[in-house]
Amino acid sequence: MVFQAMTYKYFFGSDKRSVPYLDFLSREINELVVITTKPKISGRGNKLRTNPVEDFCLKNDIIFKYFDESEKYSDMEYGICVSFGAIFKDYFLNSNPPIFNIHLSRLPELRGPSPVETSILNGNTLFSYTMFKIVKEIDEGPILYQNDVEVLDNYSSNVYKAVLEDFIRSFKSIDFKSPLQIQEGNVSVTSKFVKTDYMISKEDTIYEAKNKIKAFDILGPAYIQYESKIIKIHKYTEDNSDFKYELKDGNLYLDEITPEGKNKMTANDYIRGRQ
User: Fold this and answer.
1) Distance from C-alpha of 143 to C-alpha of 141, rounded to nearest angstrom
2) How far is CA 138 from the centre of its chain?
3) Sequence ranges of the domains in the chain
4) Domain 8-173 belongs to what architecture?
5) Of all helices (H) and strands (E), which one includes residue 66?
């Protein structure tokens, strides 16, 4: 009698965006193997800090391993990767079964680090995600699965939530052994945003300012410089509010803000407190 070796599904992740996918997959897949990155020294006091995936595993009694690029995971059937803070090198990829990354665009469009934010800045309300096999070239691997998600209230937090919910609904229908499809179509590449990109200037239009507020509600938030103070903007309103900010083509009415040195509050409360 020939005994077939046990194989396992693996999950690779290390930041807070990985956690809701791990939460679902750990309940959906029996004996899921979790791989994450080692603690790093950071912050005040140069303390050794664990990442959100390790914290989630410890809290929920989920066994995990630290990533070792020299290791061969011989018992891995396939891997699912979500926001993993390590780079897979050629040797590792060639020595192991396929690992599928979840990228939030319809590849080959919007490759790179900021597909959701870039799409919102362009005014889109139809979003996509792609599961593709990780290869050496960033976001260029063959496609396992793609789907579209409409998000009318297109703050980035809502987009991430909608994609997760669609992935959960679709997961059982995804055939991880199906033939992979080569990426075809127009290629575009996104860039990493920095803090100065979050700023709303007087030269922005209302349309551009609203898109910045929605695009950067996780990364940022967007902000203005108002009377020599930085005011972070979490939400705007279409109705007249007590706090209006003049832009190139009209007024932007603010709703939820965090003034410099203060806690989050409504824009109306901020203006009333100054009177």
Assistant:
1) 7
2) 16
3) 8-173, 195-274
4) 3-Layer(aba) Sandwich (3.40)
5) strand 64-66
According to CATH, what is the number of the domain 195-274? 3.10.25.10
pLDDT (tens digit per residue) in 18-42: 999 999 999 999 989 999 999 988 7
Residue 149 identity: V
C-beta separation of 218 from 157 below 8 A: yes
3, pLDDT greater than 80: no
- CA-closest candidate to residue 242, choices 216, 271, 214, 265: 271
Note whether 104 and 116 are within 8 A (CB). Answer: yes
* 4: pLDDT strictly greater than 60: no
Query: pTM score, two decimals?
Result: 0.92
Go through 209-229 and write b for each residue having 16 or more CB atoms within 10 A of its CB, e for each that does not. Answer: bbbbbbbbbebbbbbbeeeee
The DSSP bridge pattern shows strands 126-133 and 143-150 to be antiparallel
